[in-house]
Amino acid sequence: MGRVSPRNAALLGTLLSLAVTPARGASGAELEPGARADVAVFVDLSDSGVRARGARLRVFARTVLAVHVTAEANQEAVWAFAYGDDVLAHGAVRIDAGGHGRLRLVVPKVRTRTVCRLLVRVPAGSEAKEVEVFPSSLLAPAAGRLADLALAAADPTGRLQTALESEKVAFDRLETDIQKLIFGGDVAILAGHRRAGSLAGACRGLEGRLKRGMTLVVLNPPPEWEAWGFCRNTFADPLSGPARLAMGFRQILRPDDLGNGPWSYALRTGADVVPLAWIEQENVQQDAPASRKTVVHTLVGARRVGEGWLVVTMLPRAQDPATDAVGRSILGELLLWAVREHGTGNRKTGNKGDWQCGSDSMS
């Protein structure tokens, strides 16, 4: 993240003045029951030079951060996990003879998305990493709007079902051809298909209901899959650039959640597709220097199929909505978009306004 800012340096200076008890073994904070799986974090303090800015880490509350510190051997590193000027946890970790130290800490609970900092210091230098903490349930504030949504899900990996269960969103399982044929609800989500033929068969089973008004969401279709004007477009050279989001597709998700690539693939679509997320590429015409054309590559697109909607997502982070906070945000955004298109949730709440996900609030 570059040199530690004066604010972070002051915080670490305060930390150094505390009577810190060295971490026991590899643990720097007591683990809570039910904490989520480890997320690895690497901190290199082997020299005191300027460090490249790292990407912000995005994790769920109660995630265990497994922090690996590299520094000069046989010394002690101090660390702090802070929100603003408040130190939420702190400790010390011993750097062994090989120049490595390890600690584990549990990310605190939050009510809304909250940016914290992990700070680590040795005498030769220090480093700060931003950690954005997501609440365990992203859709809890929208529970009333989701209550009337008749939803079904199919994912051979089970990740989609796990994510929906974590959000306490009711859904039917589409595990057999019969279940697909008899499903008469509002929205069906298909994910986890590695073979184009398998996904094509699942789509055929839902085609009739789609044309009569259902929304069908397909997450990350495999190569060679093609249906209703959508197919996967793999770039010869990956593209770089920020993702852009439609105004109606940013209630939970934020453009910087998706990063700047590199993007290895997008969707090839027709002119009637509504882009919900996309990247832009400036195409410079060499034979006409004054003419510049922006090419839009769709990452999430929606189009009408009969009376229904087909929504296809081509985002790597959507692969694991169970444990990836950004993947869960993408899934939540798709659900809220479907709710708005179907008008469900208003029968009980009477609320037609968009729900917005807040930020920066500790529980």
Briefly characterize the structure:
By secondary structure, the protein is of the alpha/beta class.
Describe this structure in words.
By secondary structure, the protein is α/β, with parallel strands linked by helices. The chain has two domains: about 130 residues, Immunoglobulins (Immunoglobulin-like, Sandwich); about 210 residues, Class I glutamine amidotransferase (GATase) domain (Rossmann fold). The protein contains seven helices and 21 strands. The strands form five sheets. Strands 11-10-12-13-20-19-18-16 form an eight-stranded mixed β-sheet, covered by helices on one side. A hairpin with a 2-residue loop joins strand 14 and strand 15. The chain is elongated. It starts with 5 loop residues before the first helix and ends with a strand.
Task: Provide the descriptors you would attach to this structure in a database record.
Rossmann fold, 38% strand, 363 residues, 2 domains, elongated, single chain, 7 helices, alpha/beta, eight-stranded mixed beta sheet, Immunoglobulin-like, five-stranded mixed beta sheet
CATH C-level class of the largest domain is Alpha Beta
From the coordinates shown, what is the CATH architecture of the largest domain?
Answer: 3-Layer(aba) Sandwich
Q: Segments where pLDDT lies below 50 for 5+ residues?
A: 16-33, 344-358
Instruction: From the alpha carbons, calculate the radius of gyration and give it in angstroms.
Output: 23 Å
CATH homologous superfamily placement of the largest domain: Class I glutamine amidotransferase (GATase) domain
- Characterize the biggest β-sheet: 8 strands, mixed
Strand order of the largest sheet: 11-10-12-13-20-19-18-16
Oligomer category? single chain
Number of domains: 2
Mean pLDDT: 82
- Topology as a string of helices (H) and strands (E): HEEEEEEEEEHEHEHEHEEEEEEEEHHE
Helix/sheet category: alpha/beta
CATH topology of the largest domain: Rossmann fold
Number of helices: 7
Question: How far apart are the termini?
Answer: 27 Å
